[in-house]
Amino acid sequence: MGINMFPDYDECRRNLENLIAWYKPAHRNEATTRFQIIDSLFFECLGWSKDDVVMEEYHNGQYADYSFNAPRRILIVEAKKEDLYFEIPAGKFKLEHSISSLSRDNANLKAAISQAAAYCQERGAPFGAVSNGYQLVAFIAVRNDGIAPLDGKALVFSSLEEMLENFLDLWQSLSKAGIEEKNIQARLIGNLQAQIPRKLSETIATYPGIKGRNVFQTDLQTVSDLVIEDLTRSETLEKTFLEECYCKTGALSQHSLASKTILETRYAALFDSNTPSPVLVQAVDRQGISPELLAESISRRPILLIGSVGVGKTTFIRNLMKVEAPSVFEKAITLYIDLGSKATLSADLKSFVIEEVIEQLRDNYEIDIEERNFVRGVYHSDLQRFRKGIYSDLYESDQQRFKEKEIELLERKITTPEEHLKQSLKHIANARQKQLIMILDNSDQRDEYIQQQVFLISQEIAEHWSTTVFVTLRPETFHRSQQIGTLSGYHPKAFSVSPPRVDLVLEKRLSFALKLTRGEIPIQSLPEGMGVRLSSLESVICSFLKSLKINRELSECIDNISGGNIRLALNLVRGIFGSGHVDTRKIVEIQRDEERGYTVALHEFLRAVIVGDNFYYDSSRSPIANLFDISSNDPREHFLLPLLIGAIHSLGSSSSNGEFVETSVIYEHLQGTGFTADQIDEALIVSTRKKMIETAARLIPQPGQIMPHTLRVTTLGLYHITRLCSLFEYVDAVVIDTPILDSEVRELISDVQAIDLRLDRAESFRGYLDLQWSKMNMQGLGFDWRNASGKLKTEIDRIRNVNSR
What we know:
Blueprint: H1 9-22, H2 30-44, E1 53-59, E2 62-69, E3 73-79, E4 96-98, H3 99-103, H4 107-123, E5 127-131, E6 136-140, E7 153-157, H5 160-165, H6 167-174, H7 176-180, H8 183-189, H9 215-230, H10 238-245, H11 260-264, E8 279-282, E9 284-285, E10 288-289, H12 291-295, E11 303-306, H13 313-324, H14 326-330, E12 333-338, H15 349-365, H16 372-378, H17 380-387, H18 392-397, H19 399-414, H20 417-431, E13 436-441, H21 448-464, E14 468-473, H22 475-484, E15 493-496, H23 502-518, H24 530-550, H25 552-562, H26 566-577, H27 584-593, H28 602-611, H29 640-652, E16 661-662, H30 663-672, H31 677-689, E17 693-695, E18 710-713, H32 715-722, H33 728-734, H34 743-748, H35 755-776, H36 785-804
Parallel strand pairs: 3-5, 8-15, 11-14, 11-15, 12-13, 13-14
Antiparallel strand pairs: 1-2, 2-3, 4-7, 5-6, 6-7, 9-10, 16-18, 17-18
Helix pairs in contact: 1-2, 9-24, 9-26, 10-13, 16-20, 23-24, 24-27, 25-26, 25-32, 28-33, 29-31, 29-32, 35-36
């Protein structure tokens, strides 16, 4: 690792020189030693601020002298009185020593290190140190490599003079910057790599495998995609579809595990005190389209539609154009540009927008901006001035040459497509008395850089092109744009599009699909043989619609996994119709032949969702996370994710900030139970990436970076800890993706397919987790594995009884 010379390095070194010049032994007690020497050493010589430390931090009846945070609790220093001499073995001229050799025949030092190590392990601080003012011993207090901390090495400075002589070593190891970079860990034990047993999935040659579909399932998947998704975009069916299927926003489903507070603060709470919140106006509510939305169209600024991915921004726009305000759009020239599907291969986004506008004007409105008479109309005033210019004499004497000069002028005008299009749009607006409306949609399906570019383009078009511009953005992009300056000159006003109720959307969409399958709404150009497949799809849809109404567990599952993402909810439902994990032929036969029909069970649906098209569960491809996965040899980590989610939910329920909780509070709680900052970092990253929690401004935490300021649980996270972890279908899937630290239990976790053997495997896994939980001897805040384990056992027993009949 290179030497990092921070700006205060030399100043801190001079401060240590001054401390040495001042220092004289004086039989100081512990309090005086801390005040006069240790404070100076850390705050003046090692770059720490008093804001970085909690003095006399209380935990479980014990007080730690110094608890340093960077920004999480990371170093605990125990102070001892000056007279408590830490005798270093004679003849040792190195800085690194084994803790066992230091402790041998040195009861004072052994007791001090043991005390500091215990404090670190109880509070999740990875590094510890003890000091009597003029001596300092630092060590790794929390390890996951199978070696006990007190069997490791320590970094020892036997005097203040030795600290000065080796100041670079002292600085790199114990300064704030050095501790943040964990240099002392690299020095004493190298890069600590967790040696954990292989997962069962790593021993399966065909993992994750592909779950094959039979012909019937393949055909059913094809026709369901056509009826539920593709046909809804048909121009001939669009108005009918919107009238029958569009659901207004602003309601919370009865099946959602989240509170109404989360819905009400869905976007406003994304902004913290450092970034003022924009004025957010609901684009639509139960009364209809906000009057402010269309009124905003007279401004020379883009109209921002803010909404998370999948909440229905595109459907909102389509409904606005076709149903809510058709008179406005029918009288206007409307240019709809899909930046999600059509612009993906374009390297130059602005060029794509220009070409798309030119093409739509030509195809949809029969306006060719390069046609002779149109071009002359656009530049009529320029041609008038040209006739009075230096070539005016040619107009009378040589009209042919004059026309050639005019053509040269017009040629120069149209050789810059962007400027020519801008002038053409102005001409259309003035000459035809038409309002020009441009909609830049689906930019939120692209990366953040593209979204920033889309806004800049929309801002330029709205201001200079005589065009009303609608642009869709994700809320987190809007937030970051304000921070980095892209939106700094833009009045912070936006229209939010919140998701409608998932259960109502599914009911309307599936009912509409039924009308298509039954022929109540004609489908033009139906492919040959499609009728039979439509009939089968009709049976499956009828079964699923009925199941949604009578099976609360199924509705709850879809609602909370999708978390307001309507696109995801529809994909989950469509996925089951042709899934290789679902016996759809059986569903069709029972639905047709039995009076009661077929009710889809939760376990059937869950298997298709958790595993997808794979044969085995693969966490990298599944929308469902493995709560019990671990990154180190610490068995407690099996419960870190559910404890994290539970703590955020429990503490957030009493929060006045839209159920957001300060990240520091979560670290304090979890480190107080013995988890390290690194473990919590990893859990936060996994939870955010799997959408089980969300952060302020939807920032994605990155390894080694400062974590977001606040956190909030999502419905998906709640569903994981309140439902999924106690379901056999879930445990049966994730057990192959979980390292088992107990060798005897690991022998019982094998690749089996028969239901009775899978039940045995799940029971072994449950017993293993029970044992690990019992060793923790704790009450989880917002999560208790004992409750989940009891429910899981009940379900395993129920399945055994059903299977044995």
